[in-house]
Amino acid sequence: MTWQAIDYDTRGHVGIVTLNRPEKLNAISGDLRADVHAAFALAQEDDNIRAVILTGAGRGFCSGADLTGQVPPPEASQNARLDEMSWVGRWAKLFHDFDKPLIGAINGVCAGAGMSAALGCDVRIGSEHARFKTTFVERSLSPDSGMSWLLPRIVGYADAADLILTSRMVLADEAKSLGLLNRLVAHDDLLDAALAYAQEITRWPPLAVRTAKKVLQTNFESDLDTALKYESVGLSFARRATNDVKESRASFLEKRKGVYTGT
């Protein structure tokens, strides 16, 4: 497949999506949006891919919507014009609804909808160059792209209000203390660290991993009774990989690493 604004690579069971407009700090253009949606669909349908890393080329992770290009024409179809979410809502749903583990390798600035993309990852590993900025009020906007939902769930309401209402820059050390970053590594080691982390995940039964993510997301705001019921549903999904269930037991009894196929 030919990519206009990203690179898509695979390393074993890991897909790597690299936003590739470094001269614009990987600002979100129409081409970049289309490429990212296509790459995630490709990774979703490929059973060999068990986790995805999202990162950026050059100095930025993603600086948000590209405000320097031409204003795109209105969407042509009636369905598109009646879409209440518009592209920013679809952008947020793309990351949140992706049911394989998604690791953000945060190499530089994350701002606006680019910060929302980072927040949509399950785990964020950043370098000392990582920095976060909500940006919206500076543009006379309220938060979009899922930020008002994602940010308080990660850092809590008061810190989310602080970051959104002041639009201040958060550098890497503070981002780690707030929970915007789960791990902080040297910049030159960032991709290797993200790959090593992804590979920790991909060595386990893939259907169980995908179901575990789905159960976590579903039960995050559930009451206990509902959560326990959905855990039972999740167990039935995970155990559909009958060969992996047998391999898990056999590798445990034989004191060896399991070899899992997702079947």
UniProtKB/TrEMBL annotation:
Entry protein name: Enoyl-CoA hydratase/isomerase family protein
What organism does the UniProt record list as the source?
Phenylobacterium glaciei
Q: Which GO terms describe its molecular function?
A: catalytic activity
| Annotated InterPro entries | ClpP/crotonase-like_dom_sf (IPR029045), Enoyl-CoA_hyd/isom_CS (IPR018376), Enoyl-CoA_hydra/iso (IPR001753)
Pfam families given in the database record: ECH_1 (PF00378)
Q: Which family does it belong to?
A: Belongs to the enoyl-CoA hydratase/isomerase family.
